[in-house]
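User: Teach me something about this protein's shape.
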Amino acid sequence: MEVLKTNIEGLVIIEPRIFKDERGYFFESFNQREFEEKVAKTTFVQDNESKSTYGVVRGLHFQKPPFAQAKLVRVIKGRVLDVAVDIRKDSKTFGKYVAEELSEENHRQLYIPRGFAHGFSVLSPEAVFQYKCDNFYSPQSEGALAWNDPSLNIDWQIPLDKIVLSKKDMNHPLLKDLELVFKNGKI
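Assistant: First, the predicted structure itself:
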């Protein structure tokens, strides 16, 4: 696997080595030893999958300490614009984000450390999205940031009249109004 740095420390894009022939392709989607050598020492404890249709925007979600989660995300089917926003209060990149297209064609993955809000928009007719988490989900520790926060100005690459949101994702606070629990990249 090749690890590509982003403009935010710790947030990286992973490109697997793909072996193709007349039968199709093969690649390792995860290798604990190589991941720890090249990315971060972590133990993933939960895998999740979602299926969404065009225009769905999910996010921007995070888990508050002590249930904060690092994630390794990828797309099995379709295309998404994946977004991770740095919400570590004392980080030099606080309020900055990385947006990366993940697809069944490019097989890219995004590693998102703890201390980030995460979301994605579906750019294809449908998408199947998978992610690994290094901590268990805890409903009482849910946190979220408004997907349309003007201070972030994220281009979700979906016309506004085509965006589909859950009721829950329609009313999250702006970054300036968040009670921040992440400091100095620590939890």
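Now, about its shape. The radius of gyration is 16 Å. The longest helix spans residues 32-38. If you'd like, I can walk through any region in more detail.
User: That's plenty for now, thanks!
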